[in-house]
Amino acid sequence: MSIRLLPALLAALLVACAPAAPPAPNTPTAPAPAQATSPLAVAAATPAQAGTPQPRRGGTIVIAASSDPGHFNPAVTTSGGTHFVADNLYNGLIFLDEHLNPQPDLADRWDVSPDGKTYTFHLHPGVKWHDGQPFSSEDVKFSFEQVLLKYHARTKAGLEAVLDGIDAPDPNTVVFRFKQPYGPLLQRLDVVEAPIVARHVYQGQDPTKADANLKPIGTGPYKLAEYVKNDKVRLVRNESYFKPGLPYLDEVDVRIIPQSSTVVLALEQGDVDYIQSVPGPDLARLKQNSAITLAQSGAGSGGSFCADTMMFNLSRAPLDKPEVRQAFAYGLDREQILHEVYFDQGRVATSAISADIGWAHSDNVQQYPHDQARANQLLDQAGLPRGADGMRFKSTFVHATNYAKYGELMKQQLAPIGIDITLLPLEFNAAVDQEYIKKDFDLGFASYCNGPDPEIGVRRMYVSSNIGPIPFSNGAGYKNPRVDQLFDQAAAAVDRSERAKAYGEIQDIAARELPYLPIAETAGYRAWLRTLHNLSIWSGELAEAAWVEQR
0.85 exceeded by the pTM? Predict the structure, then answer.
């Protein structure tokens, strides 16, 4: 039984292994954070039995990663590949539990002013960085002002316009001052959204290029011991970790295994303890394996409530025409894509905001059922006649290699309407660089995670202030002053119905102008050996409290 996957056992574990949660802050006028669907669903787990083994100290686990992390600074990217490994080295001010509710991490407790504009965090005393230097409020202030607000796409987009300032009145207190009430803050302060990095390590350096990105110094439960690019990462216990008794494990070994068939075989043979994605064809077989636990999750190291999304480069003709982008939407059969690429793990996306954020999501927007006749009509109207070969124009689709099957199906589906797709598969980090830094693409593809509130993960895609060389930002280069205004209104509104109205209009505009085409809201399966317990699969802090039975 995986203890942290079931609420009753989770509660018992938190009493034993983690600081007590503070009372819920009183925020009478602040916008309420989103109430979203829980991202976690256990698919195959045996009921709790008498004699369930208790946490055991020691041991090594092997977890599989589908891509190399590239570096170990999670504060300058929202890349799930980087966060999957690096988040184990760092902490946020808070930890989000499996229901995405805030719990203590670097901050033991927090207070919110009656007007919802000031958040005061009381930090855990005596925390040390991996090099033995003391952690303090100045590290938090530095991390936000010099790193997160400049390079982390979701944090930059959400906070830069509304944050008035950050104060560090003493080493164990940090104060966030806002220009207006700001409700979503607590949901965006975990290690995924706001990892805290060391001021004494990064001060005076470019945090995107610093040597420390490959020699990380964090506060987290594990320290980097070895890194062999495209092969493995070895993490060892931080003996000075500030949470008593944690971590349990001696080591976490990360193996880079891009091939999905290879990683499943490694799990079945016991060579790997945990895999972060189960290929559809293998799901039924793994469900029958009594040695393996499966759980479906809409959250993880990259964020929560994610949608795999096609991105149009709006600076390139003919993709700068809305009718051409709409033709793509009509030309693609997303139901077929969901079935053949995702093996029905998820659902077809119908809007710019995930259906899991029910209060903000709207289906009352323009929809694009598969309709080749309508697609052809739109391309004719755009002045794009067919050539002698039957094609109207060419577009290059830049994508990470793990999206190869999607690319092949997309190419097949768009050919009948005269769009000739050239596939350019790249290693994950190279694809990110090509799309977001160099801006050298026609069509791109990314998993954009919404987060528990649209302010956290949707805003960064659409606001014009977030156009720039930042991974997973507004990569399309979309500019619409009305959309910018509506996001600001939604962030400032106190009443949720007012926020929902603004988000509804945003979704209506986005569905018509279509700078991005959401393809599928994903909810893939994770799998691990039953001898491994207490994984936080919805969080970046995957293995903080994990433990393994004696083998």
Answer: no
